[in-house]
Amino acid sequence: MPTVNLPAAPDPSPLTATQSLAEPPPPAEAPLPAGSPPPAGAPLPADSADGETERLLALLRDMPADDPRYEGIRARIVAQHMKLARRIARRYANRGEPVEDLEQAALVGLVKAINGYDPLRGHDFLAYARPMMNGEVKRHFRDLTWAVRVPRKVQEGRAELGQAVAALSQRMGRPPTAEELAAELRLSEADLADLREASAAYNALSLSTPAGPDEARTLADTLGAADDALDAVEDRESLHPLLNALPPRELRLLLLRFFGNQTQAEIAAELGVSQMQVSRLLAATLSRLRTSMLAET
């Protein structure tokens, strides 16, 4: 079968190519005026340019709080600075508080900074927000972590005490003495002792804490209680010599009545007197003892 050579496909005409290049692109949307909020439901642009936070903050300043876009814009600013808030919170880690709680405190400070920032003042937002986040974390330690509320001066003194102990221990290679600590903190030894005692209020032991290795007893079991019998010790010791000074008959009468628990009729029969005489003698003896004890006090 003979071979057929087909002609090559013709090149597109110059007119066709010129026409395709000359076709106008689809019309672009008109840009929003600078500073105007995005339309409702429109996604916010990615945070890729400097000044994006300031632009969003400017939008919030001119936007009423009940605007449906307000919470979304504020949440966008919080998300942009989430890593910064976490870094600030982790500076205070290993101090007995969960890191999650510290991060929440830093985020509260961030939200407060967003709410209180005024772009018209010309300050950088981060320079305004960092102290707010640090302050909120410190406030968390001051207000929520102490077992017993102490003055702010004591709380700050506890932090300075810990730093001084660490610095002196590293410098001298041993734990510092009370005299050395007092000199480092510029305190008297009495004030240092008060600071140490007040610092113990940061942590409190539960009364359910085991008080021994066997865990059979709790800390509550080792605490004393008020002993009502102690109130009678002084009266009993004062009464003792007065009883020894009574005539034998009156002393026997008191012993039969208050230690033998006998009735007046039983005492009268034992002493060979009437019940009326027992009553009068008992009243007179008790009155004399009472007067003598009151005279001593």
Brief characterization of the structure:
The chain is mainly α and 297 residues long. It is built from 13 helices and no strands.
Total strands = 0
Q: What share of the residues lie within helices?
A: 55-70%
CA-based gyration radius: 45 Å
CATH fold-level name of one domain: Four Helix Bundle (Hemerythrin (Met), subunit A)
Residues in β-strands, percent: under 5%
* Element-level helix/strand string: HHHHHHHHHHHHH
- pLDDT under 50 segments (min length 5)? 1-50
What does this structure look like?
With 297 residues, the protein is mostly helical. Among the domains are: 52-144, Four Helix Bundle (Hemerythrin (Met), subunit A); 152-202, Arc Repressor Mutant, subunit A; 242-296, Arc Repressor Mutant, subunit A (Orthogonal Bundle), CATH 1.10.10.10. Helix content is 57%, strand content 0%. It has helices at 14-21, 52-61, 70-80, 82-90, 99-116, 125-144, 152-172, 178-185, 189-199, 233-244, 248-259, 264-271, 275-296. Helix 2 (52-61) packs antiparallel against helix 3 (70-80), helix 5 packs across helix 6 (125-144) and helix 12 packs across helix 13 (275-296). The longest helix is centred in the C-terminal third of the chain and has 22 residues, at 275-296. It is elongated.
